[in-house]
Amino acid sequence: MIERLLADLEATTAIEAVAAVLGIVYVALILKRQRAGWIAGSASSLIYVVLSFEARLPMQALLQAYYVAMGAYGWISWTRNAAQEGGRIRRGRPREHLVAIAAVVAASGLTARLLATETHAAWPWIDSLTTWTSLYATWLVTRMQLENWLYWIVNDLLTVFLFGAQGHPLTAALYLVYLGFSVSGFLTWRRQFRAQAA
Question: How far apart are CA 116 and CA 68, in angstroms?
Fold first, then answer.
């Protein structure tokens, strides 16, 4: 297994390395609530659209395209939030999250079935689940909602496995870094949320 990992690392392309670095920059800036993170994230996602298609992960490719669009929306939303609310962090209600989780699981089941029967998708269930979770979590980020980080923690764990199993160890390692950022992001934003509430 270690030999395969080393071989996969040697085969990592420069463009994948650029995408990984931009992805780290994105999360670091978002954690600090800096709008420039949306630019870095969009650039990283453009590269990952191509890489995901090459890895036979169609839902990941669609997800990355969504990230590009959400980069523009996130920039606009955070600009408006800064002007109107001073960059205020929000929280969702438990019922909203229960409905969202049920919707994510249902949508994942439908797309996983479609991918399993109509495509050559490598991991249809995990590919679908990470895609739908990411769609919702990204929406929460654009709304500057605290719980986005909890969704990312779960999603990052699944994505580490997904890309690792498909021979993209650098991207899998990137998601391990994202996992660390997600934990840090939740703790940081929670502290800031409590401070603004006080």
Answer: 26
Given a cut of 70, is residue 8 above it in pLDDT? no
Task: Evaluate if residue 192 carries a pLDDT over 90.
Answer: yes
Is this model's pTM higher than 0.90 or not?
no
Q: Is residue 55 helix, strand or coil? A: coil
pLDDT given for residue 70 in this prediction: 93
Rg of the chain on CA atoms, in Å: 17
Among 182, 194, 183, CA closest to 138: 182
d(C-alpha 18, C-alpha 161), whole Å? 21
Cβ–Cβ contacts within 10 Å for residue 145, how many?
Answer: 19
* Residue entry with tokens 């890895």: 55
Q: At what angle are helices 14-31 and 169-197 packed, to 10 degrees? A: 10
Backbone angles phi, psi at 90, to 5 degrees: -110, 165
- Average pLDDT over the chain, rounded to whole? 89
Query: Distance from first CA to last CA of the chain, Å, rounded?
Result: 51
pLDDT in tens, 50-75: 888 888 878 778 889 989 999 999 99
CA distances from 98 to 2, 102, 103, 150 (A): 40, 6, 9, 13
